[in-house]
Amino acid sequence: MSTMSSIIDENILSFITESREMIDEVEPHLIEMSKMSSPGSSADMETTNLIFRLFHSIKGTAGFLQFNEVVKVTHEAETLLDLIRNGQVETDQRNTDVLCRTCDIVNSLLNQIESTGSDKGFESEAQAIISELSECIHPTTAGRENAASELPPLNAKDLSAENALEAAAIPDAMDQLLLTPEMLQRFIEEAVEQLEVVEESMLKLQEDPNNMETIQEAYRSLHSFKGNCGFSGYADLEKLAHKTETAMDALKAGTLAADPSTIQTMLYMVDIFNQAIADISKGGPGSIPNRSVLIDLLDDILPTAETDAESQAPAPDPRPEIQQPEALFLLREKQDLPKPVEPTDKDRGRDELMDTSSSKSRSIARQDIRVNLAKLDQLINLVGELVIAEAMVTRNPDLKGYEFENFERSSAHLNKIVRDLQDITLSVRMIPVSGVFRKMIRLVHDLSARAQKKVNLELLGEETEIDKTVSELIADPLVHLVRNAIDHGLESPKERLAQGKSETGAVVLEAKHEGGEIWITIKDDGRGLDRKKIINKAIEKGLIKDDGSHLTDSQVYDFIFHPGFSTAEKVTDVSGRGVGMDVVKKNIEKIKGHIDIRSQTGFGTVVALRIPLTLAIIDGMLVRVGKARYTVPLLSIRESIQVEKDKITITMDGQELVKVRNELVPVVRLHEMHRIEPDRKELEGGLVVIVEHRGEAAALLIDEIIGEQQAVIKGLSNYVGNVKGLSGCTILGDGEISLILDIGGLVARAQDAVAA
Amino acid sequence: MAKDITSIEDDLYDEDDEDTQKNRYFTFQVGDEEYGLEIIHVIEVIGMQKITEVPDMPDFVKGVINLRGQVIPVMDVRTRFKMAPREYDDRTCIVVINIRDTAIGMVVDKVSDVIDIPEDQVDPPPKISRSVGSRYIKGMGKADDKVKILLDAGKLLYDEELQQMESKVD
């Protein structure tokens, strides 16, 4: 059975993802904090609280999972933030820098955990950042805060205990502050799951009292539940859960028999917990009014020795011995009575707090599910097939020539549903671009400090949604482009002033929808690309043979994508090696995107990444050559023309060229490449489609244009592998397969033929 | 004699159990000989359908077909064995097999039957053979006084040609 290891792995994995998300969230706020702070002012409360909360959550979970290094580091960061929050320490550049680096360390620790399962191996780095943090803490607080900063290296046990204490000790208003609605929601979701496990195991145990594995499982879930309760500040729940856990431990050790009455009690506890969780999800305080009674009930079933050692509960009232079932019965009666809800001041304060955000707490009922990406892809594939199957049915050749009114109506209805389904499934994979964009805030912050330039980063259209794969693939290119913009694009403050620009350079990152594509643009107002410099470098590298004066700007700018091409005089540690743009190109081409560069000397550069909306479907033009039907991506088609005799040139080695306006375009004879019999072989009077890839063109000789259609892209089988000139295939409405032409490959092949 | 396709498919689907699949062979005819494939590899048998040719492939890869939305490549067993090509007729079938999680169709002249050949009835492949196809032979199975050539599906699909193909593609 995989229970033990898989449960732990699951916990660790979700810890890693959650912590990463939190770190991503912290960074922009840190930078915001450092920007808002002017000397002498105290930091913005809300931001500081937010950062504090995030660090605190990471610490809590890490302590729970016994990642001591993470705990130590985040604990120290928390201490510093606490001081900042109380106004005892100023938020200066140094403090925020140290905190930023703390984020880095935590990230490295998370990576370490992900690959090795433990956070060992970064002790020295962790120690270094801890001492830096305590330096930040010390100067102003030497007297007061010694206790906090001189804590001996904590071990995880102390901490989870400390967490619990802390949670209990902090005033309730604080408690609520520590929990973001998202965290609360996650807590509730997890709690429900954990309780389900406990309940299930108890029921199983009833049937098979000797099944150690189920006890183990219940124990683990209960333990996690307890930890979460403590960490989220629900003291009542935590105490009761602790007691239940003790009982479970006794069950495990065999000192408590798994007889029906014990199990009954346990199940009853689960019910109580569920009620409390339900209360919390409605915005209630999650308190358990008759906690001490319940704890006593548990004490009663526990062997006495255990009770003394473990009892943390308030001294049990001396109460008459009651037989278990009776006690339960009594309790149930009590429960049925209207709850003695006497809101204490504490509760009232909390209630008010919850009321102000009452709409938010309602929405806790909304549930997100983490779904395996592979399953999602399978679903999307199936829907793709459904689209094809639908077309196969409703446009079935057997129906030709018949008029079926009802059938037409039903198939129109089906068609609509299928389209909606397709839209929704495709949208499931879409995530807002903000995650990728926000990473740039930190990057710009670091780079501007290092390059000693003042930069103002503006993010536009963060809510634009892009495919998850796309978002992963554009992250690296964006880093390179932003680096280039700051390192090469923007001038130093002095230069800028001399040119009459404002001292602070602007970098604008924008995402938007633009006619079936997503455009992600990186704009700077720096010095712009130097055409002459690029041409000189290209000549030097042997990329062009003449002086390059006939090249269009976009052709010139294209050179910067060549590997190893850099016009930077000196290589800095940031950029200049000419690797970056190559990476940008490779990644963008992987997702069938284009890169446009516009630049004006002295006014800046705009790099636009044009990425298709989805990777699964393209707009295609269906063309016919003989019996074969090919799909040509619509985006790469420039025009289609009938070839006139005087436009044809044939080189000595037989390569045909067609003159289109002032350009000689090489002809690609698909029928020769694919060994098929076309309707006509003569170029003269034939139909060609002029396709274009990165500024270079080719003319595909075809027999007929059938029409436009959306194509669900399918890979050719692994067995076939990659084929030059093809990027995949798609299934047509009549069930036949149409090969999708890889225009990039075809154009390159044609241009090579001309050059040869 | 050859059964019709549906009854053979029934046989295929009946045998889900690993144990009962052992020593069972799916047999088909190419040219004058009967060949056998371990039943565990065979997914289904479909009639001949339109094959979309893919350029730059070895000659025995005829192209790809659409199998209920799944695009799978099709290999012509005749060409693979360097036998003379023959017009496809209504007996010509595509046997869909699954090797290493890849589905591939094989064009055969005629499907025959599903038979049991116990291990002791399988002889090792002939040591000396001039035929091109001999390297794909796993053994010679004897059933009802006839000899079936048992094929090694893995070798049939993934052989030196594939490596050549890969190097050509890259």
Number of strands of chain A: 18
Distance between the termini of chain B: 46 Å
Structural class of chain B: alpha+beta
Mean pLDDT metric of chain B? 79
Our estimate of the beta-strand percent of chain B is 35-45%
Q: So, the CATH homologous superfamily of the largest domain in chain A? A: Histidine kinase-like ATPase, C-terminal domain
User: Within the CATH hierarchy, at the fold level, what is the topology of the largest domain in chain A?
Assistant: Heat Shock Protein 90
Q: Can you list the strand order of the major beta sheet of chain B?
A: 8-1-2-11-10-9
What is the CATH architecture descriptor of the largest domain in chain A?
Answer: 2-Layer Sandwich
Number of domains of chain B: 1
* Arithmetic mean pLDDT of chain A: 75
How many separate structural domains of chain A?
5
Largest interface: A-B, 29 and 24 residues
Description of the molecule:
The complex is a heterodimer of chains A (756) and B (170). Chain A has 756 residues and is of the alpha+beta class. In chain A, a hairpin with a 5-residue loop joins strand 11 (648-650) and strand 12 (656-660). Chain B has 170 residues and is of the alpha+beta class. In chain B, 19% of the residues lie in helices and 41% in strands. Chain B has helices at residues 5-14, 18-21, 77-80, 153-157, 160-169; strands at 24-30, 33-38, 42-47, 61-67, 70-76, 93-99, 102-108, 110-116, 122-123, 137-143, 146-151. In chain B, a hairpin with a 2-residue loop joins strand 10 and strand 11 (146-151). The interface between A and B is medium-sized, with 29 and 24 residues.
